[in-house]
Each structure stands twice: as structure tokens, then as C-alpha cells.
Amino acid sequence: MLDPKLSTTDTVTITPPSSPSLIAARIDRIPFGRFHTRLMSQLGAGTFFDGFDAMTIAVVLPLIVKSFGISLAEAGLIISAGYVGQWIGMLLAGALADRVGRRRPFIISLVLFGGMSLACAFAWNETSLLVFRLVQGLGLGAEIPIAAILLSEYLGRHGRGRSFGIYQSLFAWGIFFAPLTALAATSAFGPETGWRVLLAIGALPLVIAAWAYFALPESARWLAVKGRAAEADSYVRAMEDDAARHGTELQKPEEPSTQTEDTFRFSELLSPAYRARTLMLAVVWFATFFVNYGCLSWLPTMYVQVGRLPQSQSLLLAIVTSGLQLVVIYIVVSLIDRVGRRPLLIAGLAVAAIGALYGFIAIGLLGHTSWQIMFVSGCTMVVGTTVPAVFLYLYTSELYPTRMRGWATSATASLNKLASIIAPTIFGFMLSGHGGTPAVFTALGVAAAIALAAVAFGAIETRNRSLEETSA
């Protein structure tokens, strides 16, 4: 009879590592360790600068408007151009990730992202900036979903939500430091040069790409599915050895029998087995980031243009909003593996809908246009949508098998980029005399309410379950 607790050597010797399900089972029982910390550092550095860029363009937008002498509608097109590139990059990266692996597309995305960030800093007019942002978006869009998939495929079933949430918080830290860096850059170099310096800082992912080239592992789950069992085993064995060195006794892996790995078809996303979850995720991804990016992109400008707040104070409010996001993220991290994904999705989207309703009533019905009203309403919506944003990539990856996880995650998550394209353009149009601020809050509230309904009727719980189980 086998002892239920085995050493690393016993486990690998007794259980052949060639089966994809056995590779997954071995990973699922390994606690968070130094292997995960190194992986999270490599992936998280890229994710930090993705968040940094997302907020950078928002906080420097008023400066760009003044520097190039453009309208708010034209500024909205510059924001949207970046998201068009991200949408395309995300779709391409997802398809590549299921064919060539997670590692190479991630490194390429960092090179493209960092290189074009530098180009944006030297833009000479609004057209050149728009084009550079469009190309830069290809790298930005590819980075986050691939990083999220690679990390989720190395996390065990217990504590997966907490570990992923800590990693995802690096995106919010990037958002938090962007306005702080903007204040420093504009104070040191002046508004005209300061925004260019801020964009140039976004070239640092080039250094991260060099680091990842030499140190980033490929997904063991993906390697096993592709028949590269020896490579998959080497990575998992390193994790097991690390756990053993720190005194962890690993349970014997139990091979799940709930999933068969077949050749992936693009149409499988809408097959009977996955149609309901795909449609639910599409709605949630689109609506969550329609609200989130709509607020983050336009709130600093609305404070100045509508609320008559000085630019420097607008940046301070952006810092406060980012700080609140970080607080919410760590609250979610502490709850996600105890409360579950579905209840948190419902709670967050409900808060966002309430924030939009408050803004509509105060501004649209009562006629208050102070920055204080916009700040309270905007912060409430940002805080609410931050809750699902913390773990939507993880939740999506939990609902699809390894053979299609890259494409499924990027395809559904790409709806957030579509929302990010539409929201700035629509809001720029509305704020240019077509409905104004009340119309903006109405659109935000409707989006949050639709997402809330989709989750209430279509979301399933994945807490403390293996990826192979939840994706079956």
C-alpha cells in the first residue's frame, strides 16, 4: 500500500509525468513557494507597467490637449487608438499562446510595448501620437492575458485566488504611481516636457523583456498537452524540490478524469459546452471595463473641464482614486478564497451601478456639477469595478481547458478593450455638447446593471477547485 504522503522523488518515480492531467495534479498540490515568487516577479513587472501606461495617458491627456491644441473628441480618439491596438494584440496573442506557448508571446509583447512607449514620447503632433499608441497597443494588449494565463497554470487549487489577486495588484500599483510620477515630471521639467518624460518611462519593459528571455519558464501544463512531457516534468520537479527543501510533505497527486485534451477549434468557444459561460464572460468583461476605463480615462479631464478644478489638484484626486483601488484590491485578495468569485462579482458590480445612479441623480436631475459630486460618483464606480477586475483574468482562465485557455481568455477579455475603444470616444462625443455629463453617467449605470444581471444568472463558482475540474 502506498503512503498517502510521498517525497518528491517517490512521487515522480511512482507516477509517470507524461500525462497532462498528472502534471496538473502535481501542480495543484504544491503550495506557493519561491518558484511562484520568481514567476510572479517576472510577470508582475510587465503588468505593473501596463497599469502605469493605462493611467499615464489619462493624467497627461489635458497636457496633450493643450500642447497640440486639439479638442476633447480628438483626445478621445488618441485614447481609443491605443485600445484598438490592444484589442488586436490580445486576440493575436491568445491564438499564438495556444500554439507556440505562453513564454515567447509574452516577451515579444514587452519589446513592442516598451519600444513604442519611447516613440510616443517623441510624438510631434496628435496624428503621430495616435499611430504610435495604436502600435504600442499591440504589445500592451498581449501582455496581461498571457501573463495571467501563465501564472494561473502554475498556481495550485488552494489559495489560487489570493495569490493571483496579489499579482494583479501590481497593475493597480502601476496606476497609483502614474499620477505621482506625473506630478514629479511636470514639476521638474514643466508641463510641455513633463508628459513626454512620463511616456518615456514606459520604455522600461524592454529591460524586463531581457530578464524574461533568460529566466521565464514555459507553462508546464501547456508543455504536457503538447507532448513535451520531459520539459513539463523538469519545471514541476523544480517546484516539488523547492517545496521539499522547505519541509513541505506533498500529498500523492490524484489524476483527474474529468477532461480529455483534444485539438482546439476556434468555434469551440460557442459550442454547447462553453456557450453560456462565454456569453456571460463577454458581457461582464465589456461592461466592467466600459465603466472602469471610462471613469479612469475621463475623470481627470472632467474635473478640470466641467468641475473647474486646477490641473494639479485633478492629479491629486487621481492619486486618491488609485489609493482606494489598492485598498479594495487587498480586501478582495483576503476574501476571494473564502467568499468565492461569484458573490464578489455581484457585490462589485452592484456598487458600480449605485455610483452611476448617484452621479445621474446629482448631476442630471439636480443640476450639481461640482467636482466633489463627480469625485464621489466616479470613485464609487471605480471601486466597484475594481472588485471584478482583480480576478476576471483568473476567473476566465478557470472556465476553459489548457488546449484553448489562451484563445478563450484573450477572446473574451478582448471585449474589455472593445469597451475601452468605445467608452472614451463616446464620452468625448457626449462631453462635446451631445448630452453632457448626465448622458455619461446614464451610459455607465446601464452597463453596470447589465453586467450585474449576467453574473446573477450565468456565473458559476470555481473556488478551491482545480483548473481541470472547473473547465470540464
UniProtKB/TrEMBL annotation:
Keywords: Membrane, Transmembrane, Transmembrane helix, Transport. The chain crosses the membrane at residues 43-65, 77-97, 106-124, 130-152, 164-189, 195-216, 279-303, 315-336, 343-367, 373-395, 415-433, 439-460. The keyword Ribonucleoprotein does not apply. InterPro entries: MFS_dom, MFS_sugar_transport-like, MFS_trans_sf, Sugar_transporter_CS. It is found in: Cell membrane. Coiled coil: none annotated. The keyword Transmembrane helix applies. It is a multi-pass membrane protein. It holds the Pfam family Sugar_tr. This is MFS transporter. It comes from Nocardia rhizosphaerae. It comes from the Bacteria. Its main location: membrane. Residues 39-463 form the Major facilitator superfamily (MFS) profile domain.
